[in-house]
Amino acid sequence: MSTITFTPLRADGVSVSYGERRVLTDVSLTVGPGARVGLIGENGAGKSTLLRVLAGAETPDSGALTRPERTGFLWQEVRFEPGDTLAALIEHALTDVRAIERELEAAAAALGSGDAASDARYDAALAAAERAGIWSIEARRDEVLDGLGVGGIPLTRRLSEVSGGQRSRFALAALLLGRPDALLLDEPTNHLDDEAAAFLERQLREWAGPVVFASHDRAFLDAVATGLLDLDPARSGTTAFGGGYSAYLAEKEAERARWEKQYADEQQELRELTHSVDVTARSIAWSGKVRDNDKFVKSVKGNALDRQISRRIRNAEGRLEDLRTAQVRKPPARLGFAGIPSGFQSLDDGSGLLVHARQVRVPGRLQVDDFAVAPTSRILVTGANGAGKSTLLSVLAGRLEPGSGALQRRRGLRVGLLEQDVRFADPGLSPRRIYEAAVGERRAEAVPLTSLGLIAQRDADRPVGALSVGQQRRLALALILARPPHLFLLDEPTNHLSLALATELEDALGAYPGAVVVASHDRWLRSGWAGETVHLD
């Protein structure tokens, strides 16, 4: 049996810019075999960009990279045509494995040729075959598909015939089946239920090669990561942390407090030094008219005082210059959830439910006997992928007509739906233009986009197509909150949002003045849910 070795995954001084916008600056990391590094940071901080660079899908402006020959990459969105079958998706992921099988067969056949290099060739082919697990692919295929909850779906189906969550699960299954030497995963749990997420956690904890993943799943980070790399702006750029997510939160908050205190202390010292140089030193200078018999005293004492004042001024000026040059920069403002704008008019007038669905059926997608939403309801909808959570929200929002059943809704009801997959028709428009067109100029002036705390000022006028998936979802959330709905529907609301914003959004939903219906797999969110829970089979 040959010895299986894995090449570390390494980045040295990687920098990436898009136009004038610097996304990554001098990022370095080394991930050895068996290590699992989670990338965290605000939306747009460069997590997906770094993964693409590590995968070789994007070339950095500067820096050096080392990766195993077989490095697998899970994109956030499935990169196949809707007409492709599920079987084709899986087989495409096994292209490298099939090549390894052919090379092993050829190397074995060459052993009897008398070629001196044939033994080394066979050893290399055997080691590659063992890393890829070529002898257990068929058995592992059933295990992985079942573990991710899609084992019962015929592989002859086209991607357009399954849900977005199921497509993502098949893409993940295909990647795991190929067993690459290194894994790069961009939001791998976005469409996984509890059982599937637990299965993936077990797979990754047993993975022999290096793993790097970006995730907003707080429970997943705690369960899988052996270390974290924070791409949020900090004094030294990125911050590496060798521990789990819960411990990291406490350390990050303490670091932020230290940074803010040092900045405040230095600014206070700068003000005092400036005052000392510009005001205090001159105010104590020798002044006044001197009598003739005091000329000698003035000469002696005045010269000494002049030297003392000059020395104090020079010392203050020197410290002032040093501090101006070396002072820590101001901590960036926290980009958070600013809450609900004023002007919300509740429908909680005692006249009944907002929406009442009875015996609602959408063939093949949804079956609900009774679902009632009161003006201040807090309802969490759970269930496996394909159970109909997204379909239910679409029916409640009036975007999908049920095949049968009764759906009553209150007159004058305003509904807002935050969908899982956000699409903007014109990627060239800026968030500010999209916002103004959606809410009207008067409302946009009264409630500016950046006042909602979801889109940073620097991103408000960039093309929306150049923003990250998470930033686009922030914009979609801002469009809803600019005119707060009576019924707020959120489909997997924490997907693609930064960890900090997800927590703030959860807190804000608890105080929302209207009704809230959330469909979510987020274990962290569900563990703290205080309202009603409805499970769809």
TrEMBL record:
Keywords, sorted A to Z: ATP-binding, Coiled coil, Nucleotide-binding
Annotated coiled-coil segments of the chain: 249-276
ATP-binding is among the record's keywords: yes
Gene3D superfamilies, sorted: P-loop containing nucleotide triphosphate hydrolases
InterPro entries: AAA+_ATPase, ABC_transporter-like_ATP-bd, ABC_transporter-like_CS, ABCF_ATPase, P-loop_NTPase
The keyword rRNA-binding is annotated on this UniProt entry: no
GO molecular function, one term: ATP hydrolysis activity
Protein name in UniProt: Macrolide transport system ATP-binding/permease protein
Organism, as annotated: Leifsonia soli
Lineage, broadest ranks: Bacteria, Bacillati, Actinomycetota, Actinomycetes, Micrococcales
